[in-house]
Structures are given as C-alpha cells and as structure tokens.
Design brief:
With 109 residues, this protein is mainly alpha-helical. The chain has one domain. The chain has six helices and two strands; from the N terminus they run H-E-H-H-H-E-H-H. This is Beta-glucosidase 1B. Belongs to the glycosyl hydrolase 1 family. Pfam families: Glyco_hydro_1 (PF00232). One of its GO terms (biological process) is carbohydrate metabolic process.
C-alpha cells in the first residue's frame, strides 16, 4: 500500500487543471450526531425530524470520531475543508445574548 494521497492516485491528470483545489465539506447536523451530548440544545432540524425514524441523533458520529475523519481527509489529500458550526451546540438556548456552552466552543477550536 502506498502512502500517496488517494486523489494523487486517481486518474485525474489531464481532466482537472493543475491548480484545481479539490475541497471537502460537511454540515454539522448531517455528520456530528451526539444531539444530546455536552450541553447541546435542540435545533430546528431536531423538531422537524422528531416524527421520522431517520434523525441526526447518531448521524456519522463525527462529534466523537472527528480524529478519524481528519485522518480520512488526509488520506484523500484534502487541501481544504469547509465545516459548519452547530449554533445549538455553542448557544444551546438559541439567543445571541444567552450564555455560551463551553463544551460546544471547545469542540470548534
């Protein structure tokens, strides 16, 4: 097995410009899970999906497995990564003047 990033091993040469920035992205609700962990408050998606079997309670468990996610990004040769910040994790009560959740802030250094 090679240590060369997966993107370098794919047959993309000649297809994409040499200065093409291949990036990755995620959305907090879709990947984090841990909807009731470390003081996270409810968000609009929690309310919207409460009557459906597929919710964000577990998602991809990125909240707990973020180090593995970073390893995967490195394996894929990621040069950029865009992620969203869960407001309900940082401000569990939802208001701008409400107290911040220190655990939520520490998760998003």
């Amino acid at each position: 097995m090679t240590n060369k990033p997966i993107l370098d091993r794919l047959e993309l040469k000649g297809i994409l410009p040499s200065n093409f920035l291949h990036g990755f992205a995620s959305a907090a609700y879709q990947v984090e899970g841990a909807t009731s962990k470390d003081g996270r408050g409810p968000c609009s998606w929690d309310d919207f999906l409460k009557d459906f079997p597929d919710k964000g309670d577990d998602a991809c468990r990125s909240y707990d497995l973020w180090e593995e996610d970073v390893k995967l990004l490195k394996q894929f040769g990621a040069k950029s990564y865009r992620f969203s910040i869960s407001w309900s994790r940082v401000k569990p009560k939802g208001g701008a003047s409400d107290p911040a959740n220190e655990a939520g802030i520490q998760y998003h250094p």
